[in-house]
Specification:
This protein has 484 residues and is mainly alpha-helical. The chain has a single domain (10-209, 226-474), classed as MFS general substrate transporter like domains (Growth Hormone, Chain: A). The chain is 79% helix and 0% strand. It has 22 helices and no strands. The chain has helices at 3-7, 10-17, 19-39, 45-71, 81-86, 91-99, 110-133, 136-139, 145-171, 173-176, 181-205, 207-212, 225-235, 239-269, 274-284, 286-302, 304-318, 321-328, 337-376, 381-409, 423-448, 455-483. It starts with a helix and ends with a helix. The model is unreliable at 473-484 (pLDDT under 50).
Amino acid sequence: MTTEKLWKKPVFWCYGSAATAFGIKNNAFSYLLLLYCTEVLGIAGFKASIALAIAMIWDAVSDLLLGHWSDKTSSRLGRRHPFMYAALLVLPISFYLLFDPAIELHEDNAFMYVLLMCLLIRTGTTLFEMPSTALLPDLEKDYDRRNQWLSLRYFFGWYGGNGIHIVNMMFWAGAYGFAVQRGYTIYATVGALLIFLSIVISSFGTQREASALPRPADTFKLRDIASEVGQIFESLKNPNFKALFLYGLTVGIAGGLGMALYLYNTTYFFAFSGPQVAVTGLWVLVAPVCAVFAAPFFGARVGKKKAAIYAILLNTALYPIPYILVLTGAWPELGSWLSLYIYSIFIVVEVFCGIIGGVLLDSMMADVVEDSEVVTERRSEGLFFAARGFAGKAISAGGIIGAGIIVSLVGLDAITSVEQVTYDIRINIAVLFLPLYCLLNVGALYFVSQYRIDRDDHGDNLDKLAKRHGEDLAIGVDRVASSD
């Protein structure tokens, strides 16, 4: 199969487009929701962050069970699609209701309402995103071409999430004001509709290939849950999986901190307006276009592990520079367009490196599937992708709580305009946030360095599995012959 033929396959585009739904949800939770809770619903930052963290922990735990369940689901729709279709009943509706509450909220019920909606959204995301991502090892066996499938998926995820973010900052929440419900209502309507379309298009577009895949011989047995849990732990003993899992644990805290504080930092630290934040989002659209070609290129030329490490190191090194320049007085006037353009350049490069690292790390996780199957004789792609997500989600919940605590400690709970932000507040934000963020990212790379599967190892695993499956087929034929 050539690269040109791959790009002409409809299933390739349908697999990638699934990330649009996840991108929209992820953008909302990572950048907007904490601000919405504090500015519109009147929930204190630390309290809102607790609701988000509880929902994320639930998401992480449910991912593990559902990942294993989907690996062992025998259905004419395929192993993954029953869960993907179920997400249609949960995710779009709950997303809409979160940002346009169906009931009148006040001090006594706002926290529980947000918590309930977050739990439903996280459940809907688990039903769709985890099984959808886990289709990759069955759709593509080639070591390098897996990078292309995941690059396209990241492309749709970034354009979905960042695209609606730009419009929201320019015309909806950013234009009406972050403390005004009207903008969020429009955002909720459009976001829910796009999530619905993404699930429908990607699910139906990958249905034929999924239905044609072999059904698992060993199906999920709820009555024998102890055995199922044992199989989960057996699969998770794989040392290459452990390396990526521990990376996810460490970097998850940093990600939770950075994303939850993003709009606070751009609005109050750098003094950008809503439309200016939207302009930064426009600049960021350059990064996924470049990364969709760069990630497969560097993965093939340098190797997945080295390319991922280099990209993440550069990302981490660039991240604190704008903050340091602001505090030392070397940055242009806060809120100016020159300041925005320079900041946007940093963001574009950071996002470009982040996408490359994310694509290659996910591709490395796909290669763990065959590495584990050689030992366990089970395909556990759903479990592996879910478990890596579990690491990031469970621990980034701590990052979100940390972000809420920082918001309260530095006094941003009471801030309603950038004019109220003092130099001391900016110093406190930088001191509490930047060292922790950077050290966690650098430390996470140690775990990536312990990953050992390269192109040759993957080829050996495919050869072993091909030989085993051929022998299994021969045994089956002999049994049929003897019975006759």
